[in-house]
Write a structure and sequence with these properties.
- The chain is an alpha+beta fold.
- It has 4 domains: 87 residues, conserved putative lor/sdh protein from methanococcus maripaludis s2 fold; 89 residues, Efflux pump adaptor protein, beta barrel domain (Elongation Factor Tu (Ef-tu), domain 3); 49 residues, no CATH class; 76 residues, Helix Hairpins.
- It is built from 3 helices and 22 strands.
- The strands form 4 sheets. The chain has a 6-stranded antiparallel β-barrel with strand order 3-12-15-14-13-16.
- α2 packs antiparallel against α3.
């Protein structure tokens, strides 16, 4: 009879582990596959050095209408927003008192005309008598003096009549030029003075951008510098040049006033706030597509691909960007020309992720 010897328990465990080792052992963790992305090389272009400021628009053809006489408004001939031509009546100030003054002056002139005619007849009579030797030279001189005084008196009264008639014209307020009537704050019955604003008349034409530039940049200001007007989205809607640089500094804001005129295309209005970009000069710098830039908490970021340990790895960089040129951002800091910028799939990327370029 043969005896079967059972191996120790420890040997059995070792044998099992050895068998498992022969089959490859436990599975090892693998790196995630590279994410396919589109890559563009940052290129250098000539870009402008600009500063953007809030400017106020003013019209060169905007007239503030104020009366030249005092009185009560009796008629308003136009409404706000109406288009008028030069000389169109806008309002009527009660002219009754002035009309009475003109009538009184005209009556005085009629009396002076009659008096002058009488004195002239007297002079002619004395002149004839002097020629006949009936009167003396002294009588003739007195008659001539009386005639000169009567003529001067009539001339003075006629000047007063013309003055009062001219003032009577001021009681009808007219448009000084063709344009659009603005707001009319007065009503019929209101009493106005020479300092009362009746309305405005804005003539289409040239607008001026009033730009307040910090005094620190004032030494670089000069006439003819380019100025660009941008809308709320940043798109340039008008271009101009500096036409005026104030020689003084505003003591309240410590800024220097700069003006730039441009043609009104009907999209802007006087007294409107707009964005004005003053172009200081040009330089060569990199640009990246707008699609490659992400805005997070008010800061701009982009992914740049570079080789690391035999693979292409995406690294996130913080950028300082300038204005938009076409479909690209001008990069002031964070990327240099030649960097490989990732422009697609950035929403799925994380810093340090492996990527593969799409064809």
């Amino acid at each position: 009879m043969s005896l079967r010897v059972r191996p120790p328990a420890g040997h059995v465990v070792a044998l099992v582990l050895a068998c498992l080792g022969c089959r490859g052992g436990a599975p090892q963790a693998q790196d995630p596959p590279a994410l396919p992305v589109k890559i563009e090389v940052a290129r250098s272009v000539t870009v402008d050095d600009t500063s953007e400021y809030v400017a106020t628009l003013k019209s060169r053809g905007s007239a503030a209408i104020m009366p030249q006489v005092e009185g009560h408004i009796t008629k308003v001939f136009v409404r706000s927003g109406a288009r008028v031509s030069a000389g169109t009546p806008l309002m009527q100030i009660d002219p009754a008192k002035q009309q009475a003054t003109v009538k009184s002056q005209q009556d005085t002139r009629a009396a002076k005309v009659a008096a002058l005619e009488y004195v002239r007849q007297q002079f002619e009579r004395v002149k004839g008598l002097y020629a006949s030797g009936v009167t003396s030279k002294q009588d003739l001189d007195q008659a001539r003096t009386a005639l000169d005084a009567a003529e001067a008196d009539l001339s003075s009264v006629e000047s007063q009549v013309r003055e009062q008639q001219e003032e009577l014209r001021y009681y009808t307020v007219t448009a000084p030029a063709a344009g659009i009537v603005g707001d009319i704050p007065v009503r019929v019955g209101d009493r106005v003075t020479v300092s009362t604003l009746l309305t405005t008349v804005d003539s289409p034409g040239v607008l001026e951008a009033y730009v307040s530039v910090p005094v620190e940049r004032a030494p670089a200001l000069r006439l003819g510098m380019p100025v660009r007007i941008a809308d709320s989205t940043g798109a340039v809607i008008a271009e101009s040049r500096v036409t005026f640089v104030s020689p003084q500094v505003d003591d309240q804001t410590q800024t220097v006033l700069v003006k730039a005129g441009f043609e009104d295309r009907g999209t802007l209005r006087p007294a409107q706030f707009i964005r004005a970009r003053v172009v200081w000069g040009t330089h060569v710098g990199p640009v990246v597509p707008v699609l490659a830039v992400s805005r997070i908490s008010g800061q701009h970021f982009a992914f740049v691909a570079g080789p690391e340990k035999g693979a292409l790895v995406a690294r996130q960089r913080q950028l300082t960007v300038g204005e938009i040129v076409g479909n690209d951002y001008v990069v002031l800091e964070g990327i240099k020309a030649g960097d490989r910028v990732i422009v697609s799939g950035t929403q799925f990327l994380r810093d340090g992720a492996t990527v593969s370029p799409l064809p």
